[in-house]
């Protein structure tokens, strides 16, 4: 732990190649219940591409050094120095060592304490099983090493442990040997033939249930597939296994990429900071993204499991075979791999629905990050703690940037770029720039300006005005772009923005697109915005069109265009671009919500605009639409996304307007919601095909409107759905709706649910978060109770996220209570957590980031908590970075 004086900032511009390389490494792990001995034997060599120096500086934290040898000589005190972060070896003080000419061997021996490691970084114990997490800089908590992604080596790993307690001993690559030892112990040796950076190292040891399967690659290689889970959970692994096989087939089909080892293992652990980790040949997963059974997991959980399995699998090429030179390049692997998993999921489910879901994440979370104190480009320029940069910007905006290549170059052009990327860089640690140049060279396409997406933070704002000339059948679009200043960056240069558009005639058909001049500015239906102000003249526009702009959300920007209600209702009913159909509905709802806010501001009663009824009713009864699409198109915009639309928000008015609109729509269309609920809610045998999933999604939204009526009849429906359901999708929907309502028996509902599911940890987490997100007043007391509940455990990140994360991140009314109790609660939890698990504590701290959006009193209350956090003794640098940047 450090205080602010010892906190240093790392800069991208300071990159230097490592002074030494590691050609190969052998690790020996002797595992015991309360400690482990790690012996590392590595062949080092001075890096010909770097300045040579007499000092070999290895990273290492929380290690007890027990011995150190170089080239067979035991080192004495003057030959090395150890501090809390590094081991420095003075090679020039070692007799007869010509480290500049020849490679030499280093052996170190350290003692570590996995059972006491609550940070869940490095080697730790989780429910009596050992596991590791090394990305980004966790390997240095296992042994002294050059812990940086551009140092790649082949690994041989020997693990020994008590046989009875830890029958499975796993590491990367292939098992080459195993056997018994004295004292009831045994060992296994693993060898990974692929050179890899330390962050991809993994080790697991424990007693698991194992699901086995296999996959034949298209070149005919047989791959063993293994999923290791806690005892008793085998029944919940089949979906993960199927997802893995689908992912393997998809990557062959779409990108021509085959798996390269003979075995692929997945281990599920209950205590994990993130979703999952792509360690070579041995992925480690949060149980949440492996286990799925219809009784305990929702349709959304199934989709998430499939997506995360795919994501980690896809990393084998985008991340492992080609890795990052340094952590500033993180988006090189993450943005690309998220894009790949998004495409995969779209292919398995529905392209429009998936696109809408992904854009919702961008709008509610990434836009907020881009507009807040932590704003950074997808390739950051600096950081204090790398763990704080596993962000929606690096991941999701990064994926949007990759998607823009796909939009600009087309499917084939994108594939050509990928092929060249692998051809050039397989086996190397490279940069975002290397990726851009591969795309550029493979397509002979100029991406000079496009590169600004990597260097400039902030969300570009695109403003469009239009003018139709009836006489000459001309449509003129004036389009401006600007990007707000972000911390450390002002005066941004224009981006290359692909703006996909359509011009609709009065029947909703697309009119042909043709520019009068500068025809290269339009390719297909993509308009290329490249300047701060541009004018585009479309000719042959037979009559005044309705504009469908930024179709499919073709760029991560905010679009401003002065639509009127009729145009929006028209697009909501007719746009051929499903994304923009949804978008038109969201804009329509948002306009109403802001209008209702204005009425409150003026001290007037809120008025429900009846024109909405028609629009919603039409959509509701459109038989041609998919149920999941309908569910999305009938859901009001997220309050978080709405907050990002304004400079400062009156949160009380916004929440009141949102509630009012929901209730009014519920009332005005009461019979419709009921009829559609009944037509789509299914009782009887459970099915999980696309049609059944769509019906559940649609029925769920109908039920949410019915419950908003606050009537006994509606509560009865929800209760009956909960009690009679044979699947978690219906159960969780009903549970949440009831817990978030004024239903008088909700305590009873909560108790019954807990009693039924108390032994299914992931379901208990749903129960926790359903309560933590209850927007009603009693929740603040309830959450305080929940953290005392036996089901809660501050050392388990899933629990922390289910209660504290859900409360601070998704319960706006209660987190932002005007008495400040929500903020105090969050700060209290951060205080409990920062020394236990700094990474998770820092994530929670981010909930204060948008304090500037709120009224003076809330601002004051939030800053008070942030200041308190900064005063904490031995504050971790993770939390320090977030809190100090928030206060600016
Ligand atoms: N690299 C992981 C992924 O995106 C995420 C991760 C980062 C997991 C850091 C653990 C620690 O797939
Ligand atoms: Zn990833």
Can you describe this structure?
This protein has 26 helices and 32 strands. By secondary structure, the protein is of the alpha+beta class. The chain has a domain at 1-206: Immunoglobulin-like (Sandwich). The longest helix has 34 residues, at 392-425. The protein starts with 9 loop residues before the first strand and ends with a helix. The structure holds phenylalanine and zinc ion (ZN). Residues 458-561 form the Peptidase M1 alanyl aminopeptidase Ig-like fold domain. Belongs to the peptidase M1 family.
Mind sketching the topology for me?
Elements: E1 10-11, E2 20-31, E3 36-46, E4 55-59, E5 64-70, E6 73-74, E7 80-82, E8 86-90, E9 104-112, E10 122-126, E11 129-133, E12 153-162, E13 168-171, E14 174-180, E15 185-196, E16 203-206, E17 209-216, E18 222-229, H1 238-255, E19 263-269, E20 276-277, E21 282-286, H2 299-314, E22 323-324, H3 330-348, H4 351-370, E23 382-383, H5 392-425, E24 429-430, H6 432-443, H7 452-455, E25 461-469, E26 474-482, E27 497-504, E28 522-523, E29 526-529, E30 533-538, E31 546-549, E32 558-561, H8 565-574, H9 578-601, H10 611-620, H11 627-633, H12 639-643, H13 651-668, H14 670-680, H15 690-708, H16 712-724, H17 728-739, H18 746-757, H19 761-772, H20 779-786, H21 797-810, H22 812-815, H23 821-833, H24 838-845, H25 856-870, H26 877-887
Parallel strand pairs: 2-12, 18-19, 19-21, 22-24, 25-32
Antiparallel strand pairs: 1-23, 2-3, 3-9, 4-8, 5-6, 5-9, 7-8, 10-11, 11-16, 12-15, 13-16, 14-15, 17-18, 20-21, 25-26, 26-30, 27-29, 27-31, 28-29
Helix pairs in contact: 1-2, 2-3, 3-4, 3-5, 4-5, 5-6, 8-9, 9-13, 11-15, 13-15, 14-15, 15-16, 15-17, 16-17, 17-19, 18-19, 19-21, 23-24, 23-25, 24-26, 25-26
Bound molecules: phenylalanine and zinc ion.
Residues 133, 135-136, 273-274, 276-278, 311-312, 334, 390 line the site of phenylalanine.
InterPro entries: Aminopeptidase_N-like_N, Aminopeptidase_N-like_N_sf, PepN_Ig-like_sf, Peptidase_M1, Peptidase_M1_dom, Peptidase_M1_pepN, Peptidase_M1_pepN_C, Peptidase_M1_pepN_C_sf
GO molecular function: alanyl aminopeptidase activity
Domain Peptidase M1 alanyl aminopeptidase Ig-like fold: 458-561
């Amino acid at each position: 732990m450090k205080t602010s004086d010892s906190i240093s900032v790392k800069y991208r511009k300071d990159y230097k190649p490592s002074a030494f390389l590691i050609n190969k490494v052998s690790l020996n792990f002797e595992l015991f219940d309360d400690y482990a001995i790690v012996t590392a034997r590595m062949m080092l060599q001075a890096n010909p591409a770097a300045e040579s120096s007499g000092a070999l500086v290895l990273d290492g934290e929380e290690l007890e050094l027990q011995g150190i040898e170089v080239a067979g000589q035991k080192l004495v005190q003057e030959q090395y120095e150890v501090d809390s972060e590094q081991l420095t070896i003075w090679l020039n003080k070692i007799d007869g060592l010509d480290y500049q000419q020849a490679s030499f061997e280093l052996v170190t021996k350290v003692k570590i304490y996995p059972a006491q490691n609550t940070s869940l970084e490095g080697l730790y114990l989780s429910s009596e099983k050992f596991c590791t997490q090394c990305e980004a800089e966790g390997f240095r908590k296992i042994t002294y090493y050059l812990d940086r992604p551009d140092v790649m080596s082949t690994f041989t790993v020997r693990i020994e442990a008590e046989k009875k307690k830890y029958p499975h001993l796993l590491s990367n690559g292939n098992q080459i040997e195993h056997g018994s030892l004295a004292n009831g112990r045994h060992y296994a040796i693993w060898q990974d033939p692929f050179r890899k950076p330390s962050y991809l190292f993994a080790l697991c040891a424990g007693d698991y249930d194992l699901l086995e399967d296999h996959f034949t690659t298209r070149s005919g290689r047989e791959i063993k597939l293994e999923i290791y889970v806690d005892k008793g959970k085998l029944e919940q692994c089949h979906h993960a296994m199927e997802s893995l096989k689908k992912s393997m087939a998809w990557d062959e089909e779409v990108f021509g990429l085959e798996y390269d080892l003979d075995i692929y293992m997945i281990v599920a652990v209950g205590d994990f900071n993130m979703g999952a980790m792509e360690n070579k040949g041995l992925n480690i997963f949060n149980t949440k993204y492996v286990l799925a059974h219809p009784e305990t997991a929702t349709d959304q959980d199934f989709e998430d499991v499939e997506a995360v399995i795919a994501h980690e699998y896809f990393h084998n090429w985008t991340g492992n075979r080609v890795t990052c030179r340094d952590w500033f390049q993180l988006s090189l692997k993450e943005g690309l791999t998220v894009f790949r998993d998004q495409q995969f999921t779209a292919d398995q489910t529905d392209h429009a629905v998936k696109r809408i879901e992904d854009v919702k994440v961008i709008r509610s979370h990434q836009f907020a990050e881009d507009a807040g104190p932590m704003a950074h480009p997808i390739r950051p320029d600096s950081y204090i703690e790398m763990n704080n940069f596993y962000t929606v910007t690096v991941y999701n905006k990064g994926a949007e940037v990759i998607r823009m290549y796909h939009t600009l170059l087309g499917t084939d052009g994108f594939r050509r770029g990928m092929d060249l990327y692998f051809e050039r860089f397989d086996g190397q640690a490279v940069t975002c720039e290397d990726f851009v140049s591969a795309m550029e060279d493979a397509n002979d396409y100029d991406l000079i300006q496009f590169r600004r997406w990597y260097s400039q933070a902030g969300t570009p704002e695109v403003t469009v005005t239009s003018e139709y000339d009836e006489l000459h059948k001309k449509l003129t679009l004036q389009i401006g772009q600007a990007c707000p200043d972000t911390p450390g960056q002002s005066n941004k240069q224009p981006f290359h923005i692909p703006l996909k558009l359509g011009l609709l005639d009065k029947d909703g058909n697309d009119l042909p697109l043709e520019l009068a001049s500068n025809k290269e500015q339009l390719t297909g239906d993509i308009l290329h915005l490249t300047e701060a102000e541009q004018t585009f003249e479309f000719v042959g526009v037979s009559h005044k069109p309705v504009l469908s702009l930024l179709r499919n959300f073709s760029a991560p920007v905010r679009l401003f265009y002065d639509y009127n209600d009729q145009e929006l209702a028209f697009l909501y009913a007719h746009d051929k671009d499903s994304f923009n159909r949804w978008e038109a509905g969201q804009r329509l709802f948002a306009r109403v919500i802001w209008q209702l806010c204005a009425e409150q501001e003026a001290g007037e009663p809120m008025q429900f605009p009846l024109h909405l009824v028609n629009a919603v009713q039409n959509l509701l009864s459109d038989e041609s639409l998919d149920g999941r699409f309908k569910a999305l198109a009938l859901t009001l915009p997220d309050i978080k996304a709405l907050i990002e639309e304004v400079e400062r928000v009156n949160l009380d008015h916004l929440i009141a307007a949102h509630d009012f609109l929901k209730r009014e729509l519920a009332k005005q269309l009461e019979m419709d919601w009921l009829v559609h609920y009944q037509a789509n809610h299914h009782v009887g045998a459970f099915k999980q095909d696309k049609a059944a999933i769509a019906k559940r999604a649609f029925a769920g939204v109908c039920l949410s409107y019915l419950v908003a009526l606050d009537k006994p009849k509606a509560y009865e429906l929800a209760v009956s759905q909960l009690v009679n359901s044979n699947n978690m999708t219906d159960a969780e929907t009903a549970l949440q709706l009831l817990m978030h309502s004024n239903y008088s028996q909700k305590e009873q509902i909560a108790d019954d649910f807990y009693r039924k599911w108390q032994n299914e940890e992931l379901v208990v987490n749903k129960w926790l978060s359903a309560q933590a997100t209850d927007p009603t007043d009693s929740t603040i007391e309830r959450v305080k109770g929940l953290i005392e509940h036996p089901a809660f455990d501050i050392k388990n990140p899933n629990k922390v996220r289910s209660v504290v994360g859900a409360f601070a991140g998704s319960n706006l009314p209660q987190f932002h209570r005007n008495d400040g109790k929500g903020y105090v609660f969050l700060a209290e939890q951060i205080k409990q957590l920062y020394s236990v698990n700094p990474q998770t504590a820092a994530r929670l701290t981010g909930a204060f980031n948008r304090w500037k959006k709120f009224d003076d009193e809330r601002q004051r209350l939030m800053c008070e908590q942030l200041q308190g956090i900064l005063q904490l003794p031995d504050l971790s640098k993770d939390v320090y970075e977030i809190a100090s940047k928030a206060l600016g």
